[in-house]
Amino acid sequence: MVRPVAMPKLGQSEEEATIVRWFKKEGERVTKGEILFEIETDKALLEVESFQEGTLLKILVPEGETVPVQSTIGYIGEPGEPIPVAPALAKPAKKVSAPEHPAEAAEISRPAGGIRSRPSREVVEAPSAEQAALEAPLPTTKEALSIFRISPRAARLAKEAGIDPSPIAGTGPGGRVVERDVTAYLKAQGYDQLRLTPAAKKLAVRENIDILKLPSQGQGRITVADVRAAMAERPTPLNRMRQVIAERLSQSYRTAPHYFVTVSVDVTDLAAFRAELKAQGKAYTLTDFIVKAVALTLVDFPVVNSTTDGKSLRWHSRVDVGLAASMEQGLVVPVIRDADQLSLEEIHAAATELTARARAGRLNPADMTGSTFTISNMGMMDVENFTAIINPGESAILAVSSAQQKPVVKDEQVVIRTIMKMTLASDHRLIDGAVAARFINAVRQRLEETILWKRLA
Amino acid sequence: METFSVVVIGAGPGGYPAAIRAAQLGASVALVEKEELGGTCLNWGCIPTKTLIASSDLYAQMKSCQDLGLSAEKVSFDYRAMVGRKDRTVQTLRTGVQQLLAANGVKVFKGTASFEGRNRIVVNSQQSPGGSPTTVIGAERTIIATGAASAMPDFLPRHERVVESRAFLDLKLLPSRVLVLGGGLIGCEFACMLAQLDVRVTVVELLEDILWTLDADVRRTVRQHMEQALGIRVITGTSLSNLVPDDRQVRAQAGQEWLEADLLLAALGRKPVTAALHLANAGLTANSQGFIEVDEYGRTQVATVYAIGDVTGGVQLAHAATSQGLTAAENACNRRLRKNEKAVPVCIFTSPEIGTVGLSEREAREKDLEIKTGKYRFAALGKGLALGHAPGFVKWIADASTDQLLGAQAVGPHATELIAEATAAIRAELTAEELADTTHAHPTLSEAWLEAAHVLVGKPLHFAPKKKI
Lengths: 457, 469
Prior knowledge:
The structure holds 2 protein chains of 2 kinds.
Chain A: E1 3-6, E2 16-22, E3 29-30, E4 35-40, E5 45-49, E6 54-59, E7 66-68, E8 72-77, H1 102-109, E9 116-117, E10 122-125, H2 130-135, H3 142-146, H4 152-161, H5 179-188, H6 198-206, H7 224-233, H8 240-255, E11 258-266, H9 268-279, H10 286-300, E12 306-308, E13 313-315, E14 321-327, E15 330-332, E16 335-336, H11 344-359, E17 373-377, E18 396-410, E19 413-427, H12 433-448, H13 450-456
Parallel strand pairs in A: 5-10, 14-17, 17-18
Antiparallel strand pairs in A: 1-8, 2-4, 2-7, 3-6, 4-5, 6-8, 9-10, 11-19, 12-13, 14-15, 14-16, 18-19
Helix pairs in contact in A: 4-5, 6-7, 10-11, 10-12
Chain B: E1 2-9, H1 15-24, E2 29-33, H2 39-44, H3 46-63, H4 79-103, E3 107-110, E4 112-115, E5 120-124, E6 134-144, E7 148-150, E8 162-164, H5 165-169, E9 177-181, H6 185-196, E10 200-205, H7 216-229, E11 233-236, E12 240-245, E13 250-254, E14 257-261, E15 263-266, E16 270-272, E17 305-307, H8 318-332, E18 346-348, E19 353-358, H9 361-366, E20 371-377, H10 382-386, E21 393-399, E22 405-412, H11 415-427, H12 432-436, H13 447-457
Parallel strand pairs in B: 1-2, 1-6, 2-3, 6-17, 8-15, 9-10, 9-15, 10-11
Antiparallel strand pairs in B: 4-5, 5-6, 7-16, 12-13, 13-14, 18-19, 19-22, 20-21, 21-22
Helix pairs in contact in B: 1-8, 3-4, 3-6
């Protein structure tokens, strides 16, 4: 019997996921437990196992497409079995609706259910809950929808001409675009007067570049170079991660009134001490010291270690420090739990492991939630100073810049010292200026006091 | 001081057309030439060599005309007469250029040009009876077209038995044994011509093969013909050392072996001619190899100064210089800016001839492009068979996904003529289908392009279909 394959639901907040890769082609055998496809959510990449055995009869959602969780994304059955007719064609409105059975979906996604941890990657079993899957919205592709707007003949003519038919006004039944509309449009747009080389046309058709929108680069005709320029400028959708970053950071910057307090930290002695430790075979990064100093200070300043939903304030008894890490596709914030309780060595181990996994894109959603304060360190990027946007809900974020040699006045003398600027961005709803100043100076003092480090290391 | 809107330095195949085009566009134009109108191409390059090759080619055909049912006895040649014909041909063309320049109102200055400033040029003239040996002219725009000269590296002894191509063309007698140092296009053209004239020729090339920039299949065809049909000894991957010329001969060592010849012809590339220009006075600098770098519009670092042809590096060919010269002249005359043409054919008058244009398979590989090729041999054409011996082939290189024709190579009879069609097709960005839909006259050698395009499209007419496995 033919059974649907559904997009798994991975957490309470996940509403959509993107198919990154199908590991099987249509027509290939799949055994139970074999990895069937890989998905990208706004937080992580995950490999999904097949819960069923059979032949992958149909892939409904191709690689790169995003659909709501619980959507049917393919069918598994025996060769020759008929595939259910896509019902969603008639009800495209369901495309973006949230899943109807969130509770059930959540159950499926709990670790006790199908999720099995692997060394670096989470593996999830595709839910076989046929009931849920059959009721779930079916993704509707562009082509499927467009049948109603444009006739196949008209679409083919537009495709062959290398133009985008969407601006064409239809005169067919129900405003449908028919062949004569495309012909009239081409004529009105002066299509016949266009001078374009055969190779340019072929490339434009293949790449879905609208020939009518191609500017010629002055050689008197549209050439392959013009089409390639248009291809390079083609907008690409933000990936899931960037969309999430955009949404969350905009929201934070809009709702939390940010203000910034900057201090210069003299890390000359700390750098010397670090070198000393390194010589003893204990290699710590400056970040390790900063995380530790911040965690200790947060214990003294609970308001800075608090989160808000905009109406209430919540102090946290634990100090979970988020470390912003950049990766190719965007930004992630893995969390070092109970940073105030950890030794420097433990902080170093945790930070190293988390950033390595972040760079590889292999963090689990759980690694990235629940921080109570965040540090953004651009020390390795050779920057004088910068400000950061508060991780939504938290009350402040510390932006750490590069340690640079500077002339400074010390004991009435101008001397060369290693100075590192730090800027605290605070949510003024929660933290007033005086608190922010005291907090950041306390962090500074801790970093400058090597006696403390000698005790801790 | 007389001031011109455009001053062109160098009257070679790049400079004199630039001067004419600028004049056609209404500019007042001066053209400075230190030697002869027509430059290297007309006087010591393309034209004289092709004139001699016309003789040597026909002589070679006469020697082997039995295959065509002909007989020619006591076939011989008079090299002195061949050189005389070459000189007359050159003179005719030179006079033609002179008349053209005059008719277009281009003022020609005889002498060596140097920049005195960005807009001031001094012309030094050695023989200027009665007048001042130097003239200063003003230039609103300048086009540098000083070209290149044969490289004669220091390791070559200065001796009458060691010559480069220009000096060789002035010889009145043909040596009987020639050692050609350098298997590039100039070296190979001379080697083929000399071998056709019964000279014993040895070519020594440092790189792994002669004509190294060409695709391997083209090289193979030419080398095979040079070695087997013309009896040229080709030594590759070997440097020449211990070169000793004396009164009677030249001796040199290639690897372990000692080679002897009457003459050594050095064909080791061409170096830009910029020494006399005093580029610094115009605010210009040459690059590390001595070339004047230009952008795709022919502009140098200085807004009013353009450079074209061999002196800019790149493709050192007469017609490339001409094309760049016309573009620079138009750009200098404030016309809508035009880019230098990219589809520049390369023609090599070896035996057999070679014509290439656009991307080679090797370049496509280097650029990681997905390509496909379509090849067709002349021997499979009716006309090829009718001609008798027709070695070689044509080859298209096309974009694998769009079928756009990106490059073409031809090796064989009239390859240098045949490449023109491919150049037009590539410049027009034709696809293989378009070319395959173009009617080609029968029976001609140009049908090879059609057949090769059919191969690209996957529907060859005169191949048995590939067996489906």
